[in-house]
Write a structure and sequence with these properties.
The structure is a homodimer. By secondary structure, the first copy, chain A, is α+β, with helices and mostly antiparallel strands. The first copy, chain A, has 15 helices and 18 strands. In chain A, the strands form 4 sheets. A 7-stranded antiparallel β-sheet of chain A has the order 15-12-14-13-17-18-16, sandwiched between helices. Chain A has a 5-stranded antiparallel β-sheet with strand order 5-6-10-8-9. In chain A, strands 1-2-4-3 form a 4-stranded mixed β-sheet, sandwiched between helices. In chain A, a hairpin with a 4-residue loop joins strand 17 and strand 18. The relative contact order of chain A is 0.11.
């Protein structure tokens, strides 16, 4: 391939300013969020719209240039980082950032791939509607990246993952053709579900340029409570009770071990341990209510009183205001920050069937202790989805970096083996990218890998679309 | 191919009783529900379980025999009827009828493909859980067929289609391999979404043998109301208001024109017109409430009072009991029966964006009248999903069969053109099968058809799995 000729053609198509080749310009695009991967690229290419993106893909195909699509570059699995060959290009979708349409009566919004998630939320709110996808990176991640990785977040219990929030897509195929699948329909049974195939494929089957998203009526109130419990089994019983009594109003159910809350209190002196005595587990419950704050609070109190009567819950705090609700959420959100403040952890983004969470923790904690005696378990997460951030911290007084170096591989292998034995997944929210590609293939059946390879070959026979991600080479 | 040898091998595998070749035995499997298609088959084959199904598929592949998977044979698009060549076999999944597991704490149930939908509902209820998929054929359709066609029904507004109610699948591939994708996980981001590819593919990409389904907490009460309105636009405004005030408690929102209710009252003398005077449109609203019947009724009354104050609703009836709720639903369910009693109709199972329903009706009614003057419009359906059963009945005094013969093609073409212009779908719930296969291909873009063909070739290169369905040959 003639690199100079290719880059000239790119400049002709996109304009000089949108073909970045100097390291001062490209650096931010070439390292992943967790600084685990540092790639090289022939160029970072920034098309202006879907038609230009399609033309650019055709150009890459003509010159045989492998492409790495990228949104906000906030992924946690290295899915948007090029390899180190310097022969790939990054296609940044950030300039495709228009909200194309808000159809409040249809409860849909059509956004281009490069829109920040926060901007999608704002556009929905401006039409007095809710776009419920919410996650820590929402100020810098893009909706295209959210869909390419099927992002989760804190409201999955009620609203589902990014997949469930998408009705239609616009995609550039690996051949550079534009597929207009931007349907705003709740029902459409006319053939194969291409939409869900592109969602979660991490850009390996095509490049998402726009999406039609589901909106919801804005709830009148959100109300939060914190419950103290003795065990994960009691937390599961509380989940059952809350789902029976509140049904779809239950939008959040987050489990946090005593150690997590102690850690937050130690690191952030303004965040005191919330109860007068320690309890083994805490659960943060959130209701979203279309009636009123008073109705939500009354319902939360009724749930917690019933749980206390049944001996499931030992103590409880129900927020008196939105500010108090936010303070309880702040506790939960401080856990990863408190962890980071104490140094590196061995992190796992896993899910098991909700019913298996107590058994999984009971079986896996001792396995980790046998491998790494004294390691401290930082177990928290979205119990309502069976999704735990099952993290392992160095023993007190041990250097975190040295601990990580020695134990990461054996601990993670053991945790993933246990997840697999409990019919769970080693990547609940974050995807595979380069990071978990091989581990995932290890646990999947040969039949499933063969089906995935057949899909990849059918859509991208030249193997130019985000090669080396999701599937092992 | 040696037919006799193939049939002998089938008998060896399944036992003589489960290889049906006599017309007295096979007849019921060879005609579709609407008696639009009558096929012939080499045999109807009835495997006992998933392993036997996989072995059977391998046998068909070895002998080059095309396969037509079939569940309850209640489909409305001829997707489960073989062609007339007599060279295909029907594989009936009805004997795979075990509920394999109910995991109440995980809110999941694993059922084999041949389970009747009603039996799945019953198994969920026995565990004090709800499986919300519900449709007219539930006593005879199977869950495998529901998934293969991505069935809709009356609770889609709240719970989604069959697709949204499925977490995992077990599938026999067109090569006769068994894929165990029976995951009970709310989050799993490890590769391509094979599940959603098989769902809605009408058996053309593989053969579903079991599914892990989502359950929900049983609501404490269901409560129904009927509102009288002047126009579809007012119905849309009521939908907005009800979604804002009731959020996810709103589980049903059915539009019925005055003509529909008049027709029911004429045909079924026990079903009187519900209001003291005629109104252009009626809407049936249903709430599912996890608190109490009293709470649901009070909320419905509040919604309807607000709508009356805003001039959206003219009159309203709120059910006082479950019996009265059922009576209101009975009105809605009697519409297709009343239609049938008056002879054949030109039926359309279409959807447009919810916001486009008033404009679609306003634009399409006059087009139909120009083609078939005096035709009577039987317009009703799931307004909350944008899904209308937009049916056309012969003018008073005209023979329905003669009307159908003369007008079916021009009327349906015009209705579908209008649907397409409103960015809608010509098959909302029923799928394509053989019936709408060509019409659907007419409206889809070449890019989409090419992607669908690439999928079909990748999964079923020999073209033996339900050939001639979904995609034109």
């Amino acid at each position: 391939m003639n690199h100079a000729e290719f880059l000239t053609a790119c400049r002709d198509l996109l304009g000089r300013d949108h073909v970045l080749t100097e390291h001062t310009d490209t650096g931010a695009y070439l390292t992943d969020q967790r600084k685990r991967y540092v790639g090289h690229a022939l160029a970072v290419l920034r098309p202006a719209d879907a038609a230009q993106t399609a033309a650019l893909v055709r150009l890459c195909v003509a010159y045989g240039v492998p492409m790495v699509p990228q949104g906000g570059n906030t992924g946690l699995a290295g899915g948007a980082t090029p390899d180190t060959s310097g022969r790939q290009v990054v296609i940044s979708l950030r300039r495709l950032d228009r909200i194309r349409q808000v159809d409040a009566d249809n409860l849909t919004l059509t956004a281009e791939a490069g829109c920040l998630l926060a901007n999608v939320q704002v556009a929905a709110a401006a039409a007095e509607r809710l776009f419920p996808l919410s996650l820590a990176a929402e100020g810098s991640c893009t909706i295209g990246g959210n869909l390419a990785t099927n992002a989760g977040g804190t409201a999955v219990l009620r609203y589902g993952n990014a997949r469930e929030l998408c009705l239609g897509l616009e995609v550039v195929t690996p051949q550079g053709e534009l597929w207009d699948g931007l349907r705003g329909l709740r029902k459409d049974n006319t053939g194969y579900d291409l939409r869900d195939l592109f969602i979660g494929a991490e850009g390996t089957l095509g490049l998402i340029t726009a999406a039609t998203l589901k909106l919801f009526a804005q709830p009148a109130a959100r109300m939060t409570a914190l419950a103290a419990l003795d065990s994960p089994a009691d937390a599961l019983a509380l989940l059952n009770l809350a789902q029976r009594m509140a049904g779809p109003l239950l939008t959040g159910f987050e489990l946090m071990s005593d150690f997590c809350l102690q850690l937050v209190a130690q690191v952030f002196t303004s965040q005191r341990y919330p109860f007068s005595q320690p309890y083994a587990q805490s659960v943060l419950l959130e209701l979203s209510d279309n009636e009123s704050e008073a109705h939500a609070r009354e319902l939360l109190e009724r749930i917690l009183n019933a749980a206390i009567e049944q001996g499931i819950v030992r103590d409880a705090i129900v927020a008196n205001s939105l500010a108090q609700s936010n303070a309880l959420w702040h506790l939960r959100e401080s856990i990863p920050l408190a962890q980071s403040a104490r140094g590196l952890n061995i992190k796992h983004d896993i899910a098991v069937p909700v019913s298996q969470v107590p058994a999984f923790i009971a079986a896996t904690d001792p396995i980790v202790q046998r491998i790494a005696p004294g390691a401290r378990m930082v177990t928290f997460g979205h119990l309502g989805d069976g999704n735990l951030h099952y993290n392992v911290m160095a023993p007190d007084g041990i250097d975190p970096a040295a601990f990580l170096k020695q134990y990461q591989t054996p601990v993670t292998t053991a945790v993933h083996d246990s997840v697999h034995a409990h019919r769970g997944t080693i990547s609940a929210e974050h995807g595979l990218g380069q990071f978990k590609r091989d581990a995932s293939a290890h646990y999947k059946s040969p039949v499933e890998i063969a089906l995935m390879r057949a899909l990849k070959s059918a859509f991208d026979p030249l193997g130019l679309m985000n090669p080396g991600k999701v599937l092992p080479d």
